[in-house]
Design goal:
Keywords: Cytoplasm, Metal-binding, NAD, Transferase, Zinc. By secondary structure, this protein is of the alpha/beta class. It is 33% helix and 22% strand.
Length: 230
């Protein structure tokens, strides 16, 4: 059975209509990154941060999985493949396409976190700073999202899976955000073959054994058909 670790980024969800973060202008959906995606921004204006993520949650709920998400779910269902999808995305499009082995290294729009006691629970459609934590009762609710300056989730598990893989595939990522941008180097040092499927070459594209350019909704189904012998 082939063990494959898949890293997915904003490019795979962009084709479902979910807007991507562009660092070149320092804005994310017309907001400064510092204001909506840092612990300091949340401390300064929690109402703004909650409004921002409430809107993102609504957009994610309105989106639908595209052929790239569906193809990865098809590959996972094949008995000849042991697939782990590590996603930088905070939507649930992989799960709604049918993928079950998905790890959200940057958290999820559909999770809530108490920053007082670190209790987690499913997020309602609309969240507010005054929402009480179901565990400690304090009004310390924040989205369960990994912000800039915070450590992504389950990194030890990811590194272990990556180094034990038979193949590492990066899909729809810029190659600019660490630690995910370093996965190709980790795989290379472990002797794991690597493949990039991206709209355009990423920042680390030259490190991959093979790189293909094009829309994820085209490239991923083509690659999956190859894997399945179709």
């Amino acid at each position: 059975m082939a063990k494959i670790v898949i890293l997915t980024g904003a490019g795979i969800s962009a084709e479902s209509g979910i807007r991507t973060f562009r660092a070149s202008d320092g804005l994310w959906e017309e907001h400064r990154i510092e204001d909506v995606a840092t612990p300091e921004g949340f401390e300064h204006d929690p109402d703004l941060v909650h409004r921002f993520y409430n809107a993102r949650r609504a957009a994610a709920m309105a989106a639908t999985p595209n052929p790239a998400h569906e193809a990865l779910a098809e590959l996972e269902a094949d008995p000849g493949h042991d697939l782990l999808v590590v996603t930088q995305n905070v939507d649930d499009l992989h799960e709604r396409a049918g993928s079950q082995n998905v790890l959200h290294m940057h958290g999820s729009l559909f999770g809530a976190l108490c920053h007082a006691c670190e209790h987690r629970w499913p997020a309602p459609e609309v969240m507010a700073p005054s929402d009480p934590c179901p565990s400690c009762g304090r009004a310390a609710t924040r989205p369960d999202i990994v912000w800039f300056g915070e450590m992504p989730y389950r990194m030890e598990e990811i590194w272990h899976s990556l180094r034990a893989a038979d193949l590492f595939v990066s899909i729809g990522t810029s190659g600019n955000v660490y630690p995910a941008a370093g996965f190709v180097a980790d795989a290379m040092h472990a002797g794991v073959p690597t493949l990039e499927l991206n709209l355009e070459p990423s920042a680390g594209s030259r490190m991959f054994d093979e790189a293909r350019q094009g829309p994820a909704s085209v490239l991923v189904p083509e690659w999956v058909r190859e894997r399945l012998g179709g």
